[in-house]
Model the fold of this input.
Amino acid sequence: MSLSLNKRVIRERALALVSRPNPAPLFVFGNQKSGTTAIAGLLAAATGQRLISDFAGAKEPYIGKLLREETAISDYVRRNAWAFSLPVVKDPSLTFVAPQLMEYFGQARAAFVVRDPWANIRSILVRLELRGDTDRLVRTGTRRINRTWQCILAGSDLGLAERHFVSVLARRWTLAAQLSATPGCEVVRYEDFNAAKTATIESLAGRLGLAAIHDITSIADKPFQPSGDDGSDLAQFFGPANLKRISGICGPLAAKLGYAAPG
Done:
């Protein structure tokens, strides 16, 4: 564990001792690099709600134990009571326990972000400076891959049996997309948001029973994270073999969500 992460965890655990979880939080779920950061940030800004995003307790080695059911939801919430005390809670890894969280917080509401799987997986690999057309992890830069991302690439946080890193990420996308049907979740496609950000956020707020009381026009195009789009053609980025891997795993569910494999 890095020193900075350890300090953040210690701080969060100390705050948890004097915090009480919000009985009716608003969760923002969605796979890593699906647009959850931008949508959560703008939704919180539009509705005047405080947001906790990507807290330390949702990183490894803690989150994997929750996802693999080695830690009970009740214990996890207690240890991270400070994070769960805020009105809006967002961390992509929490997506994979969305049903358990929605059941535990009986009054919770949630926005669930879905994104084209080919673009989503490319965004993850570009973020980590990894090539998408290989059979093993090949770096394109010098970025250090932290423990949380290592577990995501290996699928060990979710106990996935896939061996190829692209297949792992495709299986992860499929699991997240399946969970978008969790009761209480309002689904929003990243592509629809990207085409009309302010209107999508206002509509989403309404579906969640919230009022969009602040104008977000001036910050709608703010880059909340570095872009995961390197401008490459998806078919070229992945190459034939890895493109086929994604299509074979994600294709049927992607089609139901309105996404088609790149030609």
